[in-house]
Amino acid sequence: MKITILAIALTLWPFFASANVTISDGWARASILASRPAAAYLTLTSDQSDQLVAITTPVAGNVTIHAVETGDDGVSRMVKIDALDLPSGEPVTLAPGSMHLMLMGLSEKLEEGTDLPLILTFASGARMEVNVPVLGPGAMGPQEEQS
């Protein structure tokens, strides 16, 4: 009996242990061509420590998380991040010139005025679907668009 209860508890644990992640300020930049990568940005805030481990979208073959690092030579480079740490209660912002989602292998170009569907998967087992607006090709964020 104790083993059965323990087995059930361990099976259900991911459902109760999943962090509550809030996504805000999401947006993507319109792409010029489908053959060129596109970028998306957002802010994630988790009520407990978690990691963003995967992102998918039906309009791109591959989505990766990129950070920008400056080398000893002073040149900034994009580097792929396998998992994005989400410290408890601390917003993590992906923004132009910094961390971002890189969408490669687009099946169609991202058109200004449309929405980009994203599916985010977290280490806790949580999975979220969100639609972010596609802004103009030179946009720097949704605040700029509202001005």
Q: Can you summarize this structure?
A:
With 147 residues, this protein is mainly beta.
Descriptive account of the structure:
- This protein has 147 residues and is mainly beta.
- It has one domain: PCu(A)C copper chaperone (Immunoglobulin-like, Sandwich).
- The chain contains two helices and ten strands, in the order αββββββββββα.
- The N and C termini lie far apart (63 Å).
- 22% of the residues are buried.
- Residues 4-16 have low confidence and may be disordered.
Topology:
Layout: H1 2-17, E1 21-29, E2 38-46, E3 50-56, E4 60-70, E5 76-81, E6 84-86, E7 92-94, E8 100-106, E9 115-122, E10 127-135, H2 142-146
Parallel strand pairs: 1-10
Antiparallel strand pairs: 1-2, 2-7, 2-8, 3-6, 3-9, 4-5, 4-8, 9-10
Task: Supply database-style keywords.
147 residues, mainly beta, ten-stranded mixed sheet, 2 helices, 14% helix, globular
| Radius of gyration using CA atoms only | 18 Å
CATH class: Mainly Beta
Give the DSSP E fraction (strand runs of 2 or more residues).
Answer: over 45%
Q: How large is the count of helical segments? A: 2
Number of domains: 1
**What is the overall shape?**
globular
CATH architecture: Sandwich
